[in-house]
User: Fold this.
Amino acid sequence: MEKKYREEHIIDYLNNRMPVKDREGFETALQTDEKLRKQYNSTVLIWKNSGQRQVDINQFLVFQKLQEKIREEQKVAERIKRRRWSGAIAACVSLLLTALICWNLPSQAQWVRLTSTGGQIEQIDLPDGSIVTLYPKSSIEYPERFSDNIREVKLQGAAYFEVVSNPEWPMEVQLNHSQVRVLGTSFEVDSFLEEDEERVALVEGKVDLILKGGDQLCLSPGERYDYQPSSGQFKVKAFDSEAVGNWKEGAMHFHKQPLAQVLKAISKWYDVDFAIRSEALKNLKINGKIHCESLTATLHMLEVLSGGQFEQEENRWVLKEK
Assistant:
């Protein structure tokens, strides 16, 4: 059965929110359905006159109803006496001007907050088409519709950003201790409030960092910003490209890292506590890839790599020598 398209479908198409699988059918309908084509052209005209980057369905429907009201008033005016005709048209013009003013007034967008649970990765599509992959036990906040001047996002935890490029429409990501300003790029952020570190690793593009003290710095691809809140010190250094973003596929890469650091990363992933009851195991270097399919499977892999054995004591897992 042929799909019927309405105003919300046109607006999703114009805002780039229509799924790829649906776009072809919609574009075909535009060629064959004259009524849909007129509706589409009318929407585009209203959008261009509004001066906004995105079309809001509620604003559009209100404006559309006002236009219909004006046309009805004009028909009535044509049937009444000439001396009253000018007054009716003046009222219609006043109504149209009011509608245009209301159309251009920015509406207060509602904010969305999404949180990932322990052991769970979430992929989020932002209103502009940018993609954010949320690390376990992390949260992100953003408006349902970005403003015309800035794409504002707030992050607690860690995430990988793939930002749609637009030099005239920057995105600002608010972290616990700094702010990341981007125009279109791919980067990873690690900013857990309970930890004494904040990191931003740039994969491609360009980012500007604005620190709480007002200092600014610019990262180039392959550079990572490390900040320690307790000391107020930061440094910029090169990073291992394999170590950034690999967790998006549910795996972690470790290159000669102490087992204590590895368990810290696993603890953050699953939201569980660990302890090591062996100095030799603490300093053991781990080199390899760990698939985080489940906590049980991950613990088994760590036992194989370390030669130790995990035992559960109250609310934490303790690694001991066999």
